[in-house]
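Saturday, quiet lab. Running sequence design on the structure tokens for the scaffold JK sent over.
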């Protein structure tokens, strides 16, 4: 195998900005937030629009930019490892991932 073949990503990149923004919205908006949305009324719609414009859209753009800048499989782990080194790559995926998963459980 040549050195260039090892650096190429193995997965086909088919998600665009719109797909990633919707993925983040679906990850945040689930059935657990429906009662609070119903209790607060129509103002919640405006808050979701503001969140879409100020958080989800820029985050989707950042993910696409990082994926183009550092091609390969691994996501946040790969990006942190390439920029900050092995230890920070481990912290970004090996430590924060399980902590995030454990705090989401109710």
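Result came back. Writing it out in full:
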């Amino acid at each position: 195998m040549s050195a260039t073949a090892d650096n190429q990503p193995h997965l086909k990149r088919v998600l665009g900005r719109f797909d990633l923004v919707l993925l983040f919205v679906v990850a945040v908006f689930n059935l657990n937030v429906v009662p609070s949305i119903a209790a607060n009324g129509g103002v919640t719609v405006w808050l979701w629009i503001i969140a879409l414009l100020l958080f989800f859209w820029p985050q989707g753009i950042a993910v696409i930019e990082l994926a183009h800048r550092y091609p390969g499989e691994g996501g946040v782990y790969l990006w942190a490892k390439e920029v900050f080194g092995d230890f920070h790559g481990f912290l970004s995926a090996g430590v924060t991932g399980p902590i995030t998963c454990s705090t989401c459980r109710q």
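Notes for JK: The mean pLDDT is 77. The helical segments are 3-7, 17-28, 34-40, 43-69, 76-84, 86-104. Ask whether to fix the surface positions before the next round.
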